Amino acid sequence: MAAVEERTLKKMLKQYRHRDLAVREITDTILNYKDLRPVMDAYNFLDGSSRDLMSLAGTVPVCYRGSVYNIPVCLWLLDTYPYNPPICFVKPTSKMIIKTSRHVDSNGKIYLPYLHEWTFPRSGLCGFIQVMTGVFAEEMPVFSTSATHRPSLL
Amino acid sequence: LNGGAVPSAPPTYT
Known about the structure:
The structure holds 2 protein chains of 2 kinds. Chain A is built from 4 helices and 7 strands. The two termini of chain A are 23 Å apart. In chain A, the strands form 2 sheets. In chain A, strands 1, 2, 3, 4 and 7 form a 5-stranded antiparallel β-sheet that branches. In chain A, strands 5-6 form a two-stranded antiparallel sheet. Chain A has helices at residues 6-12, 19-32, 113-116, 125-138; strands at residues 36-44, 50-64, 67-77, 87-90, 96-98, 142-144, 152-153. In chain A, 25% of the residues lie in helices and 31% in strands. Chains A and B meet through β2, β3 and β6 of A and loops of B.
């Protein structure tokens, strides 16, 4: 599956202040995580305002008790990205429930020190996803309510 | 565009 082309990303990110840096980061991320794709959509801020932002939506693989699960996530990028951290959510399907923890709240929002301590260029999306999947391997953020799940064995 | 794997999660915890 081919990655989205750079010039398409540039068009999508025309309102981003550091577009070239953002394009490089996103390209790198979707090459490493094949089940994430870039999507422009309306992001609703807590103050009620809304803005068209890019998100990387899809799944990331997490190894949990010997099986690999495709955990659905959505990583929103502010127009100041990569100088501000992504806003990240677990997105349970209708057959999943969120297990809240100190890292994930009931809305699925993800809280990790990596995000609080975000400093570009030391921080980046790939680094964040590595940390996030490592944390999820210890503290699974979603569980299935369906009995018919079929995990892929390692 | 990238493809999409089917989301999955471990069975309900107790």
